[in-house]
Amino acid sequence: MGYSSFVAIALLMSVVVVCNGGKTSTYVRNLIEKPVDMPLDSDAFAIPPGYNAPQQVHITQGDLVGQAMIISWVTVDEPGSNQVIYWSDSSLQNFTAEGEVFTYTYYNYTSGFIHHTTITNLEFDTTYYYEVGIGNTTRQFWFITPPEVGLDVPYTFGIIGDLGQTFDSNTTLTHYQNSNGTALLYVGDLSYADDYPYHDNVRWDTWGRFTERSAAYQPWIWTAGNHEIDFDLQIGETQPFKPFSTRYHTPYEASQSTEPFYYSIKRGPAHVIVLATYSAFGYSTLQYKWLTAELPKVNRSETSWLIVLMHAPWYNSSNNHYMEGEPMRVIYESLFLKYKVDVVFAGHVHAYERSERVSNNKYNITNGICTPVEDITAPIYITNGDGGNLEGLATMKQPQPSYSAYRKASFGHGIFAIKNRTHAHYSWNRNQDGYAVEADKLWLFNRYWNPLNDSTIHIP
């Protein structure tokens, strides 16, 4: 995921490129200029005042259906209290939940005290307030639980990937906060700490404080990316995913997963499956066995929309990470078709791209049948790896392939608004250097309840 020169592509993208397929946006940003990290003394990384004040507060769904929440935070001076005090806006009664504290070391870094507490038996569609810390350094936050799982329940997800902690990252997060997203599907690559000398884990702390302004108030659903692996023999670090898995817990056991990097949740009208690009995924692996057991459990009369999250995209027309998703696609694509996955969100490529409904199920890497074909039973594949990290934007292959409906090397976020069992509206909101622009949008038809052709172009 290294940074490369963008001079040639900036010239190429100064005009609309219409090829066999879709469109490359006419908007041109300065692709030569590398994103710049916010300084460590930036307000975005401010440490909350008070002795041992909780920081880096974030939440994620804590069960299968949305009636539990994992509350996480860090204290620096001492462990402090593991308790979360919480109450609903319709009740005068306070509840208390007790959690666990974790620490880890990474090369020359020792973490603070990382707290994870799960609160349970929450009511659907209810505002809850919660408090962490003790004495004069308590901090209070709130969140809204999802509506009860149901066919025609409207619900809106945000999508961000590859965020990092640059000035562009700050713009992306600010724009998302001003949207109507109520839970964030995060498609991998968080802090980019591994891009700094010795995987500087201080950058995990700054990223946690930076994202708290959203992640403490609505659940972020975590996908592990390659920048979370943190495996480095040169500095003696041989445990993959150590910082990520210690800091960011997932409810994997609720869906009978054997590993925290692949799991599923139900939220309102959606069944969301998170896959692990960087865990073993072959036919004999635990991930494959879990997925083949999980997909038959998806009840489209209960959760009408089936969403899949992963880090490395399967359909990608960027020069960056081209074809990296092929091994996983060859093994899993037939399952996506069989169980009528509606949409797949990925990151990894630092650009935005949306596919048509296509499949390449006949291709097995060796037989040469390698041209994706129009397939209205297939999901739409959307790459949202454009959060704003310091590595910069990707460059695009020319000509644009027929399966690519819209693409743009620019920063932004996605919004997926489910309206009912048949329709959902998706938009990609480009930062455009200071304000959000809805640069790409379309209505998606549900593959199970409304399997009509919603493609934007014809694929020959």
Automatic annotation (TrEMBL):
Cofactor annotation: Fe cation; Zn(2+)
Reactions it catalyzes: a phosphate monoester + H2O = an alcohol + phosphate
Matching Gene3D superfamilies: 3.60.21.10, Purple acid phosphatase-like, N-terminal
Domain Purple acid phosphatase C-terminal residue range list: 378-434
Domain Purple acid phosphatase N-terminal residues, every copy: 54-145
Keyword Iron appears in the UniProt entry: yes
Signal peptide: 1-21
Ranges in coiled-coil conformation: none
Annotated family: Belongs to the metallophosphoesterase superfamily. Purple acid phosphatase family.
Protein name (database record): Purple acid phosphatase
Species of origin: Lupinus albus
